[in-house]
């Protein structure tokens, strides 16, 4: 029989770290990554045929769970139509029309193959539109692995940057400014100094890649108003939040109209699709209409376009969002009861047990994150409690052992799909309790 350990050892010989995206290696939680072979609905099966209930959902794309019959039907039809044309076809048109009708600030949209590609292209448009070079981003927001945004705030002066990765030329990040989230003063100071040089302000309106750092509405609105005042474009990165919390995404929730917006994850229903979009006057700068070059051999591939449209039409007809939120609240509140019963004595990195910590869930729509309970809401990286990583790793493995799969990092959020019904959630909670008892 196949087993994950053996496959991982083999993978390490032929791929860096044995994986094709770092977090999959379990580096953050320790242990051997599980090699999955099959999925359906909320269930995953690994290569040894052990079953798991999935709360990672490929990091978000699977709003209707794995291989939902209604979407699977469209995918099967697509196998009989065409796999790729590299030419014009109607499927991307239908998806583009559908989205532009639904979202007022999406006047035009260009499909690409990933969230990274979408953000990279949107920055290019913003620089062309403004004739400026600098980019402002926020510490704790992830925008994919493009050079210019693999940057965090340097430990020294606010606004100075150092890269998050080796191999990035200093010139690639020299124009990237970074400030903390949730800090109006830093924001105002930065705009005063640099506002007229900034092409674009990029932000995750619901930061969900460093835990779930829900921002105050006033803060995001301040970002938007300062961008406007200084003539910078506002880029809302909704790769994770787009279509997960409703059709208008977080922009709709916050009453903020972006100039440019990026989508990914859910948009392709599990196939590789991203998009950048926005006001026509900016998007018309893109080739062949305008001077900003951007292209893709497999862009707008029929699988992603047709599956994405099938899923979004389904969501538009059914409005699954209120129920998703309700299920998420049910699951997280029960999980917190269990965590507080069984998981409050997990030592930190130094092996110390903090005597009085409790857990709480941060959630928004169908996204959730478990963390130590804090007096004040955690809205920026520096406020994430110490020991979080170690505590999460213990909980992760306790759940994994019983067949509950969370994203393998304490800094990733969890997701529910429409297929996580009460019966499934109760089953997951029972399994979780079995695992947590053994901590
Ligand atoms: C996932 C993500 C990206 C990157 O998308 P990829 O498809 O992984 O390249 C960018 N921005 C946000 C907010 C994301 O969550």
Name its key features.
439 residues, alpha/beta, Aspartate Aminotransferase, domain 2, 2 domains, seven-stranded mixed β-sheet, four-stranded mixed β-sheet, 16 strands, 36% helix, binds pyridoxal-5'-phosphate
Please give the radius of gyration in angstroms: 22 Å
- SS content category: alpha/beta
* CATH superfamily (homologous) name of the largest domain: Type I PLP-dependent aspartate aminotransferase-like (Major domain)
N to C succession of SSEs:
HEEEHHEHEEEHEHEHEHEEHHHEEHEEH
CATH class of the largest domain: Alpha Beta
Cα distance spanning the termini = 29 Å
How many β-strand runs?
Answer: 16
Sheet of most strands: 7 strands, mixed
Mean pLDDT across residues:
95
* Approximate shape: globular
The total tally of domains equals 2
Number of helices: 13
Q: Taking strands numbered 1, 2, ... along the chain, how are they ordered across the largest sheet? A: 4-12-11-10-9-5-8
Report the bound ligands by name, code or SMILES.
pyridoxal-5'-phosphate
According to CATH, the fold-level topology of the largest domain is Aspartate Aminotransferase, domain 2
**Percent of sequence in beta strands:** 15-25%
Runs in which pLDDT lies below 50 for 5 or more consecutive residues are none
Describe the structure concisely.
The chain has 439 residues and is an alpha/beta fold. The chain is built from 13 helices and 16 strands. The radius of gyration is 22 Å and the shape is globular.
Written account of the structure:
With 439 residues, this protein is α/β, with parallel strands linked by helices. The protein folds into two domains: 4-63 and 320-437, Aspartate Aminotransferase, domain 1; 69-318, 3-Layer(aba) Sandwich (Aspartate Aminotransferase, domain 2). Helix content is 36%, strand content 16%. The protein has helices at 4-14, 69-81, 90-102, 115-130, 170-173, 184-194, 217-229, 249-254, 280-283, 302-318, 321-342, 388-401, 422-437, and strands at residues 36-40, 43-46, 51-54, 108-112, 134-139, 151-153, 161-163, 176-180, 198-203, 233-237, 260-263, 274-278, 359-364, 367-372, 404-405, 414-415. Strands 4-12-11-10-9-5-8 form a seven-stranded mixed sheet, with helices on both faces. Strands 1-2-3-15 form a four-stranded mixed sheet. A three-stranded antiparallel sheet has the order 13-14-16, covered by helices on one side. The structure holds pyridoxal-5'-phosphate (PLP). Pyridoxal-5'-phosphate binds next to helix 4.
């Amino acid at each position: 029989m196949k087993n994950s350990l053996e496959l991982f050892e083999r993978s390490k010989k032929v791929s860096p770290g044995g994986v094709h995206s770092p977090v999959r290696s379990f580096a953050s939680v320790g242990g051997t990554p599980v090699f999955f072979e099959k999925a359906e609905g909320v269930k995953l099966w690994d290569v040894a045929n052990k079953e798991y209930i999935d709360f990672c959902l490929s990091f978000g794309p699977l709003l209707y769970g794995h291989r939902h019959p209604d979407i699977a039907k469209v995918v099967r039809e697509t196998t009989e139509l065409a796999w790729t044309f590299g030419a014009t076809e109607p499927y991307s048109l239908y998806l583009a029309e559908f989205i532009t009708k639904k979202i007022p600030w999406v006047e035009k949209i260009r499909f690409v193959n990933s969230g990274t590609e979408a953000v990279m292209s949107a920055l290019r448009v913003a620089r062309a539109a403004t004739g400026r070079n600098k980019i402002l981003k926020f510490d704790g927001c992830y925008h994919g692995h493009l050079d210019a945004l693999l940057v965090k705030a340097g430990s020294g002066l606010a606004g100075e940057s150092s890269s998050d990765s080796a191999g990035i030329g200093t010139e690639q990040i020299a124009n990237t400014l970074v400030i903390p989230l949730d800090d109006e003063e830093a924001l105002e100071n930065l705009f005063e100094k640099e506002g007229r040089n900034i092409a674009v302000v990029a932000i995750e309106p619901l930061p969900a890649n460093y835990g779930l750092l829900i921002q105050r509405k006033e803060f995001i609105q301040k970002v938007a108003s300062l961008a406007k005042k200084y003539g910078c474009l506002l880029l809302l990165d909704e790769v994770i939040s787009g279509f997960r919390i409703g059709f208008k995404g977080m922009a709709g929730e916050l009453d903020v109209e972006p100039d440019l917006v990026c989508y990914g994850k859910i948009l392709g229903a599990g196939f590789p699709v991203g998009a950048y979009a926005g006001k026509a006057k900016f998007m018309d700068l893109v080739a062949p209409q305008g001077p900003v070059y951007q292209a893709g051999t497999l862009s707008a591939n029929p699988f992603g376009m047709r599956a994405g449209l099938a899923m979004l039409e389904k969501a538009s007809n059914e409005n699954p969002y209120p129920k998703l939120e309700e299920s998420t609240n049910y699951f997280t509140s029960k999980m917190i009861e269990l965590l507080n019963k069984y998981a409050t004595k997990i030592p930190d990195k130094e092996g110390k047990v903090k005597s009085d910590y409790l857990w709480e869930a941060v959630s928004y729509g169908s996204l959730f994150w478990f963390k130590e309970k804090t007096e004040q809401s955690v809205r920026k990286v520096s406020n994430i409690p110490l020991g979080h990583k170690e505590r999460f790793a213990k909980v992760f493995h306790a759940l994994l052992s019983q067949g509950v799969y969370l994203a393998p990092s304490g800094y990733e959020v969890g997701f529910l799909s429409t297929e996580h019904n009460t019966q499934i959630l109760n089953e997951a909670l029972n399994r979780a309790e079995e695992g947590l008892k053994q901590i």
